[in-house]
Amino acid sequence: MTLQHFMNEAMSPWMREQGPDNDIVLSSRIRLARNFADMPFPIIANQEDLEQIRDFLKKEYEHHSFQEYENFEFASIRDLSNIEKSVLVEKHLISPLLAKKDGAAATMISTNEQVSVMINEEDHIRIQIYFPGLQLTKALKKALEFDDWLEEKVNYAFDETRGFLTSCPTNVGTGMRASVMMHLPALAMTKQINRMMPAINQLGLVVRGIYGEGSEALGNLFQISNQITLGKTEEHIIEDLESVVQQLIEHERKARTRILEQSGMELEDRIYRSLGVLEYSRIIESKEAARCLSNVRLGIDLGIINNVSRNILNELIVLTQPGFLQHYAKKTLTASERDVLRASLIRERLQFKE
After folding, report:
1. Which end of the chain is more exposed for a tag (fewer CB within 10 A), N or C?
2. 95 assigned binding-site residue
3. How far from 307 is each of 108, 300, 301, 310, 311, CA to CA, in Å?
4. Of which family is this protein a member (predicted)?
5. H or E segment to which residue 141 belongs
6. Which of 30-44, 96-110, 151-165, 302-316 is the least confident region?
7. End-to-end CA distance of the chain
8. Is 181 annotated as a binding residue?
9. Whole-prediction pTM value?
10. What is the pLDDT of residues 329-348, one digit of tens each?
11. Residue 16 annotated as lining a ligand binding site
């Protein structure tokens, strides 16, 4: 089985909604790691154990709905093509680690793509829920409600002292990773983000690239998340993360204002040159495309560019990734072929500004 209808649109439906502080915060995510109490964890489980877990979740939840999250589609990772797996990673519906697994690894995704469940990744269950903008508290509430719904039929591995038990000790306790995706071009331009990262790490948080651990901050997109899961409640973790995010938002806005005041013409030139590259290039590499998209997005947020929708930029960030390009072409492409198609799709999409 494939998840074909999840492949056709670069933007998930929930991404089209407006969220608080969405000029800087693209999304908020809650991820919960859970394991079955009476089954070996994936790191030591045999194939039969993992297949039993996968088949149970498929039987109990495929095509079911929870509140507004309707009709969960189920797919085994081994049944997906490499291109399909790449697209799901690029849309943040599954992790790069899950995409590399076969055997009993699987996923369930709601129709609006706001909730996805990764099965037999590092843990038996990893729940992900997304909201647009800065909405960590709302995302946590919904994630815990969904978690309770699953727990009606699943006996979780839980210790009264330690909390939820997970394959990796760093997830023991709440089993929660909360994160926000932030667009921080001004802090990157002024090099302030490099000075801030050590201070953020000292607060028990981590700054990563667009696809999490080990990935680059393409297009000045940074993922800020908690590292500590033990010894704090979910609510306290959210409070700490949101406090730092609010400070980053304030610093980014001040940096944008300062650049505009001190180097306004140079900034406009940078933004319009980037727009020109996107509108007229015949060949463009992914890093250059991401850099130009970041500059144009900044121009939109500052009111310098008024005839390009912010949503177009959000869409193109995903649409220009390797998996999506090859899905669009319906074949495997070389890097050079992807660069040509990337430029063509950007030109085509920018003809329709709204």
Report:
1. C
2. no
3. 38, 8, 12, 10, 12
4. Belongs to the ATP:guanido phosphotransferase family.
5. helix 136-151
6. 302-316
7. 34
8. yes
9. 0.91
10. 999 999 999 999 999 999 99
11. no
